[in-house]
Amino acid sequence: MTERVIDAVFDSVFIADLAGDIKEVNEVCCRTLGYGREALLGMPVSSILQQGESSEILGLAQGERKRGLRLNLRAADGALVPVEVNAHRCIHSGREAVFCAARERAGHTRTEGETGQGGEAYRTVFEELGDGYWETDLAGRLTFVNGAMCRMAEATREELLSGVNFSDYADPETKKRIYRIFEEVYRTGKPAAIADYEVTRRDGGTGVFQFNVSLIRNERGQPVGFRGITRDVTGYRAMQKALQESEERHRNILESIADGYWEVDLEGRFTFFNDALCRMVGLAPEELKGLKSLEYTAPGTAERVYEVFNEIFRTGKRADIVDYTFTKPGGGTETHELSVSLMRDAEGRPAGFRGIARDVTERRAMERALQESEESYRNVLELAPDSIAIVRRKDARYLQVNDAFCLKTGYSAEEVIGKTSRELNLY
């Protein structure tokens, strides 16, 4: 039971007997330290703490508890992780032991090498995103947020980076969903998404959000955290609900939103749309009225859109079309996301389709630019004729080196990473 409980928490948990040997750890502890569970079991607790700190927890008297101990965990690569530890005596497997829960200290964030952001230029791009961008450590505690994320959370950057967990604003059931998603991403290394999760806002109201999450790895390919994009879809979902309530009310709402709303008949001709859609496609209302929706659709996209509409007609179920390429009448293309549903007449027979269109052209361009920038950075590093090394500021340990550095020093990258120049006798 203990093992299952400690694996459900976000803190690094370890249990040591009174002789100082580790008897149990949770998954978060393993990931934080960079060890496998079997490697940690039986290891002296002094091996995972800074020298001299193990006595702080092993010297606890019967029934004594200590909270907020400021210690430093030592990871497998030698890096120190500042933590606050709550410790108390317990019984484990019928014997006296010490239970410790360690949480990274507020304000401690990963270095650029660990988060993989590659510098201030990327941070500037993230600040310009309309969606919330965030990074967490492996325990789920926020280590970086952009301005949009602060606005969504109705909190300052300092508040969010003071030990707040990504799931802290969610209800218990949603926390379980988020935890399962993060665990799956960590296990498989594949990005994942969660749609329509609710959080309680500071004013007591409820917000609805979607997020995509992926794994952050360091230069050695080891998982060090998570990054993701969060979108506030509260208004979007409220709008969808309003569509079902009243035709008049729905039309008033549609004219006030930034996204494009449209309705087409079964042949795909526009019968109704809002001003936002006209602005998106670059056509006046009289030009758009009666126009077939596929007329300005790129050929490859048109075939995919046709298949989706047929499936909606057949099943009656709503569907999304991602990266719909639209050719503007004046030239050039835009990328839209569509949410489409079936319209029925008073007798329940299919009468057409309605949907929401969102222009994601700039967001897709920004995503491509980010990928190209990261690739350029890697190419420059590897192709540079001069020796280049990236070291961690706090302890001068190497995080990344290029081939020229290895040729000059005679060491392989694997031999250098995690070491200092003094340890390698370089200077």
Short description:
It is built from 17 helices and 17 strands.
Description:
Residues about 110-120 have low confidence and may be disordered. The protein has 17 helices and 17 strands. The chain is about 35% helix and about 30% strand. A 5-stranded antiparallel β-sheet has the order 2-1-5-4-3. The protein has a 5-stranded antiparallel β-sheet with strand order 7-6-10-9-8, with helices on both faces. The two termini are about 50 Å apart.
CA(first)-CA(last) distance: 52 Å
Low-confidence stretches: 109-122
Helical proportion, percent range: 25-40%
The 3D shape can be described as: elongated
Features:
elongated; alpha+beta; 427 residues
SSE map:
Elements: H1 2-6, E1 12-17, E2 22-25, H2 27-33, H3 37-40, H4 55-58, E3 65-74, E4 80-92, E5 95-104, H5 112-115, H6 120-128, E6 132-137, E7 142-145, H7 147-153, H8 157-160, H9 172-188, E8 192-200, E9 206-217, E10 223-232, H10 234-243, H11 247-254, E11 260-265, E12 270-273, H12 275-281, H13 285-288, H14 299-315, E13 319-327, E14 333-344, E15 350-359, H15 361-383, E16 389-391, E17 398-401, H16 403-409, H17 413-416
